[in-house]
Design brief:
Elements: E1 7-11, H1 20-31, E2 35-38, H2 45-54, E3 59-64, H3 69-82, E4 89-94, H4 98-106, E5 111-113, H5 118-129
Parallel strand pairs: 1-2, 1-3, 3-4, 4-5
Helix pairs in contact: 1-5, 2-3
């Protein structure tokens, strides 16, 4: 029996107009052997969750630069829970101040990866969380 590749959705919630970082992460995850779904810019938390459920993803990576991370990231987690899909891991990245990290982790975000963390950090994080999907 073949292992199913890890499926990751990369989403850009809110009004961010810059998606270069999200596209870099998406490409790096694909290069690392994962299946990636990219939602594009200006998606609502509801749209992101609906796509994640439809695409049967294992994880959602949310890229945010707008400063709305304290609202949008926890909202995705809450909607997943309401839909009975809280087994989908959620991680965030982008411009997120260090002082907000612990609060986001306490609201169900599994990890925060900020610029400069490198794509390898994101890949390693996912490999650690889903070891059965690799090797």
């Amino acid at each position: 029996m073949t292992k199913r590749k890890l499926r990751v959705l990369i989403g850009k919630p809110g009004l961010d107009g810059h998606d270069r970082g999200a596209k870099v992460i998406a490409r790096a995850l694909r290069d690392a052997g994962m299946e990636v779904v990219y939602t594009g810019l200006h998606r609502s938390p509801e749209e992101i969750v609906e796509t994640a459920i439809q695409e049967d993803v294992d994880a959602i990576g949310l890229s945010i630069l707008s400063g709305a991370h304290m609202t949008l990231l926890p909202k995705v987690v809450a909607i997943l829970k309401d839909k009975g899909a809280d087994d989908i891991l959620v991680f965030g990245g982008g411009v997120i101040p260090d002082e907000d990290r612990e609060m986001l982790l306490g609201k169900g975000i599994s990890e925060i990866i900020v610029p400069g963390g490198g794509t390898a950090r994101t890949i390693d994080f996912l490999k650690t969380r889903f070891p059965d999907r690799f090797n």
